[in-house]
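Cross-check.
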Amino acid sequence: MTQIKYVKTPLSEDVVMELKAGEHVLLTGTIYTARDAAHKKLVELIERKEPLPIPLKGQIIYYVGPTPAPPRRPIGAAGPTTSSRLDPYTPKLLSAGLKGMIGKGKRGKEVIEAIKKYKAIYFVTIGGAGALLSKCVLKSKVVAYPELGPEAIYELEVKDFPLFVANDTKGNDLYEIGRKQYEIKD
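Predicted model, tokenized:
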């Protein structure tokens, strides 16, 4: 049975360096949400050297556009979106201090190289389980770009949010590791 690692935000470089592709993590603390439109706005601000609406140093961005919150819940379904859509923006955000990302699916080579260079981490969680994942969200509030609706940037407080390390600081890739386990060897 795989050992579970308990990780708190913000992420320190020491914690990130210890995480290895394939490890199961339960994350607790503050994370931020952002999808395509918000990423574009953040990168434009970085390029213009203007202040960002959220801190990036040691932080995690979750690629999600949550559904409206039902009564007595802080958030609706909150499942991950496909991460490769954010690849064009990711190296710039990592260079500005972002330490982690949460999504689903493989990342491109340029992103994996940036993860190694900036000592960051890419986590994945289960697609299609947005209602279950939302139960790990204790608080939710829009902190930037409310005009983007569900693609606004939210600040989430999470407890024991279930993740797997997909890409670690050494360039290891869970998707490659998993595939090799099932290849037929001659």
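DSSP finds six helices and seven strands in the chain. Strands lie at 4-8, 24-33, 60-62, 100-103, 121-124, 137-144, 153-167. Passed to J.P. for a second look.
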